[in-house]
Model the fold of this input.
Amino acid sequence: MKFQAQRTLDGAPGGNGDGFINPGETVGLSVTLRNVGLNQASGVNATLTASDQYVTVTDAAAAFGNISGRGAAKEALDPFVIQVSSGCPTPRAVPLTLNITGTGCGPWTAGFTIMIYTSSQVSGRVLTATGNNPVSGAAIAYAGPITGQATAGADGAYAFTAVDGTYAVTAKAAGSWTASPWR
Ligand SMILES: [Ca+2]
Done:
């Protein structure tokens, strides 16, 4: 049995819904396991432990039911829940351990690492170099700890959510040179 993926559930009331695990949030972690054995694993359960001073596991149990064999993956029927202390420094990598059992099979141990970030809203305006006119619809690309795109509005304004780190941001628009990256 292997760890395959983790989905962060940081919606209200415990989180701000930006998709990142932030200091002060209580979030669900929905784990997907992969059964690399040949046979179906029945009654699969997992417990989650963290040994980090800033992370408390408040729901350490998740059930998976039966997972077919030969590489089949299955997401937990219910998520784990963790609480991150508001004083947690960021960015912080927190390793977590899964102890997995099944009926007449296992046990297995697996691990994965979550990242705790401080999220910030980055915003700006795209203006022409000569005349300072807004560039509506300019394509903004940002690359750093996370990578993505945004589009400038009619007033040239754009915004995106970023996490701790350094980013290169470029703006591209038809009829204009691509702006040199700024950080
Ligand atoms: Ca969040």
